[in-house]
Design a protein that fits this description.
By secondary structure, this protein is an alpha/beta fold. It has helices at 37-40, 47-52, 75-92, 101-104, 111-132, 159-178, 201-221, 246-255, 268-273, 278-287, 314-326, 347-374, 376-384, 387-390, 392-398, 404-414, 425-437; strands at 11-12, 22-23, 31-32, 35-36, 43-46, 96-100, 135-140, 183-186, 192-193, 227-230, 240-241, 262-267, 291-295, 334-336. The two termini are 46 Å apart. The structure holds D-xylose and calcium ion (2 copies).
């Protein structure tokens, strides 16, 4: 039985097509820099936004009907979501999905019953995976919706709540292993504080590390060989979140000896909320060897919160793909942690949102490859630092055995430094425009 009966298989029709239900740029078999687009771009569907979110906001109820013909809160509904999700992914040619524990079943009052439901639904998901070849990108535990997590999960002031966080992480890890997930995500939505007046920051951060260490130990014990990810976000829902941005999260992981097992899952809209560009957080992760996976969405610069929009900014997608290509690709994938705008509430809109996101990243990939093949940006950057490679003083500095006295003597010998050379920002921006719009 089909849920999206009126929606055809979505095909590549090329940039001239005006068919809203076709790809204009995402051509899965097209080869870019020696690899198929579909391999460069392992796209994933986020269970929560696509199959659960109905467009509720602070001022209004849902407008999109995601009952899929069943009563909410039942296992029939949970199964209908599986059917809908797999039909949806197949029609778009999406190979991966991501999930939270409570996206896939209705949560019961007793965690033992929730876990029983999770076993039942993952048996069903596994059947669908085997039938279709669709895989799990990553799993996670929702440790922010249930009222018990109002003061955080790993960072909760309550030992009992901490124990429930452990129980959910344990189960979500087991499910991720069962479904063969490539990664396991910690997004610390409530791991932060509303006010320092009532908060012991060191105690809370040490406890988050304790939870993560136990998760790594257990995960490895049950055969999880993938990466653990931290997904940084500076705020929302908490006023201040501990995993503020990539640099902060990486520092935390290194301080607690967790950096070998963890990488970053960078979300575009979280990076911009932290006052960075998307590409900034990607670069910081990559130079630390921790660029794992991406939540591909975009925010709205006029709004101060996380709007999780489908990406359509090709400039930003190009800068993202430049970072990804330079880093040699992702071990994870591109999860569309994105939702339709509230007034776009039809089944067709769900598909159009994904088509927009996939086309935007396909364009980003093609343009980033052109930028690299063009070479002007990379050549300029290399030339900009060349004094370290082609002068004696530069080589001395890089040798790591120079002293402050020796280098100072060189400067004193010169008396006055020449200017460091133009940064040529406007020239480089022009090169990017030329590549984007040629
Ligand atoms: C919320 C986060 C969340 C994580 C998974 O802002 O993006 O959805 O990706 O818990
Ligand atoms: Ca988000
Ligand atoms: Ca996310």
């Amino acid at each position: 039985m089909s849920i999206f009966e009126s929606i055809p298989q979505i095909k590549y029709e090329g940039p001239k097509s005006k068919n809203p239900l076709a790809f204009k740029y995402y051509d899965p078999d097209k080869v870019i820099m020696g690899k198929k687009m579909s391999e460069h771009l392992p796209f994933a569907m986020a269970w929560w936004h696509n199959l659960c979110a109905e467009g509720t906001d602070m001022f209004g109820r849902g407008v999109a009907n995601k009952s899929f013909g069943c009563e909410y809160g039942t296992m029939e509904h949970a199964k209908a979501k599986v059917d809908a999700g797999f039909e949806f992914m197949q029609k778009l040619g999406i190979k991966y999905f991501c999930f939270h524990d409570v996206d896939i079943v209705p949560e019961a009052d007793d965690i033992k019953e929730t876990n029983r439901r999770l076993d039942e639904i993952t048996d069903y998901i596994l059947e669908k995976m085997n039938e279709t070849g669709i895989k799990c990108l990553w799993g996670t535990a929702n440790m922010f919706s249930n009222p018990r997590f109002c003061n955080g999960a790993g960072s909760s002031n309550s030992a009992e709540v901490f124990a429930f966080a452990c129980a959910q992480v344990k189960k979500a890890l087991e499910l991720t292993v069962k479904l063969g997930g490539r990664g396991y995500v910690f997004w610390g939505g409530r791991e932060g504080y509303e006010t320092l007046i009532n908060t012991d920051v060191k105690f809370e951060q040490d406890n988050i590390a304790r939870l993560m260490k136990m998760a790594v130990e257990y995960g490895r014990k049950i055969g999880f060989t993938g990466d653990f990810y931290i997904e940084p976000k500076p705020k929302e829902p908490m006023k201040h979140q501990y995993d503020f941005d990539a640099a902060t999260a990486i520092g935390f992981l290194k301080a607690h000896g967790l950096d070998k097992d963890f990488k970053m899952n960078i979300e575009a809209n979280h990076a911009t909320l932290a006052g960075h560009t998307f590409e900034h957080d990607l670069r910081i992760s990559a130079i630390n060897g921790m660029l794992g996976s991406i939540d591909a969405n975009q925010g709205d610069y006029l709004l101060g919160w996380d709007t999780d929009e489908f990406p359509f900014d090709v400039y930003s997608a190009t800068m993202c793909m430049y970072e990804v290509l330079k880093a040699g690709g992702l071990t994870g994938g591109f999860n569309f942690d994105a939702k339709n705008r509230r007034p776009s509430y039809t089944y067709e809109d769900m598909f159009i949102g994904f088509i927009l996101g996939m086309d935007t990243f396909a364009l980003g990939l093609m343009k980033a490859a052109e930028l690299i093949e063009d070479g002007r940006v990379d050549e300029f950057k290399a030339q900009r630092y060349s004094s370290y490679y082609n002068t004696e003083i530069g080589k001395k500095i890089l040798s790591d055995n120079a002293t402050l006295e020796e280098i100072s003597a060189y400067a004193e010998g010169l008396g006055k430094a020449s200017l460091p050379g133009s940064g040529k920002q406007e020239y480089l921006e022009g090169v990017i425009n030329q590549i984007l719009f040629n």
